[in-house]
Design goal:
The protein is mainly alpha-helical. It is 79% helix and 5% strand. It has a domain of 145 residues: Helix Hairpins, CATH 1.10.287. Bound molecules: zinc ion.
Length: 240
């Protein structure tokens, strides 16, 4: 390989490295809004769960209040029935009041059970809400740290991108326009990697063997050469 050819290849390879790194940084940066949205989504889910639990708690509080007024009413009805019982003149009246009281007491005892159950559920939900709120605070901390980190990373990536762009511009100046044109044509045709080494007679771009005659010519590298299989620009590297 002549020194001139070696320099040409080196420049192209370097240009490609810069382009590949730029592309990767750009795609990394383009994922940022999505990443941030995903983080926000986590917080939203916990917040919504807390809201749902709080609604459930409020419903239960309402239910409990209505139980309370039912119980009050039922107690006053029992009181009235007792008065009726005391004032009963006939056995029939007495028996009927007694039955009334029994029924009301049954209702009342059922109400008391319901109230107790309601209180227990309310306790449980309150504990759950407390736990979720603590979780939310912790998650908020984590989310903020994560956001800061992403922000920092993206700022560094932007800086690196600017540096790469400068390097790319000055390197481009040093490359023969015709060669650059060829490189760009190949790049458009095959995708991002346009120049690739050949190692042990195998093109590293497509992993296909280079015919022996071409491989021999490649060692001399007197002109730009292309892989007959993938059409990428190829250059030799020694295997070890
Ligand atoms: Zn190839």
């Amino acid at each position: 390989m002549t020194r001139v050819a070696k320099k040409l290849i080196e420049n192209l390879v370097m240009l490609q490295e810069i382009e590949l790194e730029s592309n990767s940084i750009q795609s990394q940066l383009s994922e940022l809004p999505q990443k941030l949205a995903k983080i926000g989504e986590k917080l939203k889910t916990v917040r919504e769960t807390i809201g749902e639990e709080e609604n459930r708690l409020n419903e239960l509080k309402k239910k409990y209040r209505s139980y309370e007024s039912d119980a009050e009413m039922s107690l006053s009805r029992i009181k009235k029935s007792r008065e009726k019982l005391n004032a009963a003149k006939t056995n029939k009246e007495y028996q009927s009041s007694l039955k009334e009281i029994e029924d009301l007491e049954l209702i009342n005892s059922k109400l008391e059970d319901d109230m107790l159950e309601c209180l227990e559920t309310m306790d449980k939900i309150e504990t759950e809400i407390d736990t979720k709120k603590k979780e939310y605070l912790q998650l908020t901390d984590r989310v903020n740290t994560e956001k800061d980190l992403l922000q920092q990373e993206s700022e560094e990536a932007e800086k690196r991108l600017i540096r790469l762009n400068t390097d790319w511009s000055s390197l481009k100046e040093m490359i023969d326009p015709v060669l650059l044109e060829k490189y760009n044509t190949v790049k458009e045709r095959v995708g991002s990697v346009a120049i690739t080494p050949v190692k042990n007679a195998v093109c590293q771009g497509c992993n296909v063997n280079i015919p022996p005659k071409l491989y021999n010519e490649l060692q001399r590298l007197e002109s730009l050469m292309f892989c007959p299989h993938c059409q990428r620009i190829i250059y030799p590297i020694t295997s070890n």
